[in-house]
Amino acid sequence: MSANRYRIDALQYANWSQKIFRQMREGKLDAVHVTIAYHENFRETVANIEVWNGYFERFPELIFHGRTGDDVRLARETNRTAIFYGFQNPSPMEDDIRLVEILHTLGARFMQLSYNNQSLLASGCYETNDTGITRMGKAVIEEMNRIGLVVDMSHSAERSTLEAIEISSRPIVISHANPGFWEPALRNKSDTVLRQLGVSGGMLGFSIYPHHLKGKGDCTLQNFCEMIAATAELMGVDHIGLGSDLCQDQPDSVVEWMRVGRWTKNIDYGEGSAGRAGFPPMPGWFNDNRDFDNVEQGLRDAGFSDEDTGKIMGGNWLRFFDQNFGPA
Fold first, then answer.
1. CB 158 within 8 A of CB 190
2. Domain ranges in the chain?
3. What is the pLDDT along the chain (328 residues), one digit of tens a residue?
4. C-alpha angle with apex 50: 47 to 52, nearest 5 degrees?
5. What is the C-alpha separation between 269 and 247, in angstroms, rounded?
6. Which of 104, 192, 300, 315 is deepest in the core (most CB within 10 A)?
7. Distance (Å, whole) CA 119 – CA 112
8. How crowded is residue 230: how many other Cβ atoms within 10 Å of its Cβ?
9. How many CA atoms, within 13 angstroms, populate the side-chain half-sphere of residue 170?
């Protein structure tokens, strides 16, 4: 890895531990966007922040709370990993737009407008009818733009995503998904979405979660990196990065929480799970944070220049952080 190359992963939801934090350092990760809420309300999200405060207190030599792009640089300088908070659902703001600014003050930097289902703000990618961004959604996007809380549409449906790109005065992200032309999973995105995302200055983070890979856990590194190359042709190499969606060491019960939350009494097995409510096996080339070297080498082998490899590994995300984590 070149001395000035940053490594940023734009989405993880691991079962956090000192072991994983040490593996982040072994993998030379400068920053990770971590999910701190799936279906939690405001007070439950604050409780999760309390847990993270405990991690920062116990492992200050490994991790610290990141709030700006400069914190990524500080992480590099001090051989640590900056942790950025995000939500996979707008539930932490409940039905109160005034909580958006408070959540940003507490350190949140990303919020998805929906997680698979319809929310108060937008339609999820599992809904039959995509009604687009709601009246409240438009108001919340404006507030998010004002304070620097990034709109994330990773689990949202097509119309909602395109409307979010149009409505938002600042670039949005799809922090963890892949192109639908490569693997037609419900969460993977159409060419139209990806083109508009690139034109608007947004970012796509490529996911290594097996349900969204061609061949699932058997996906090869070569095929994954060829997919990245094809996407770069579609939306521009300046608008792509990594969002691994790594769920390391999580028990299978966590998948049920992710998919079911409080909205149903039944098990939602999810797309591509073949009736099994558990985590699928990861591809052999990416089991944990120590394997980012494999991805970097795969990008080079796929024909990316040293400069473009650096952009994808973290440089593009760092530029985006610099431009979008503060007030408009």
1. yes
2. 8-324
3. 444 689 999 999 999 999 999 999 999 999 999 999 999 999 999 999 999 999 999 999 999 999 999 999 999 999 999 999 999 999 999 999 999 999 999 999 999 999 999 999 999 999 999 999 999 999 999 999 999 999 999 999 999 999 999 999 999 999 999 999 999 999 999 999 999 999 999 999 999 999 899 999 999 999 999 999 999 999 999 999 999 999 998 877 677 766 677 777 777 656 655 555 567 889 999 999 999 999 999 999 999 999 999 999 999 999 999 999 999 8
4. 120
5. 17
6. 104
7. 10
8. 13
9. 24
The CATH number for 8-324, chosen from 3.20.20.140, 3.40.50.720, 3.50.50.60, 3.40.30.10, is: 3.20.20.140
Are the C-beta atoms of 74 and 82 separated by less than 8 Å? yes
Kindly state the tokens that stand for 86: 């995000």
323, β-bridge pairs? none
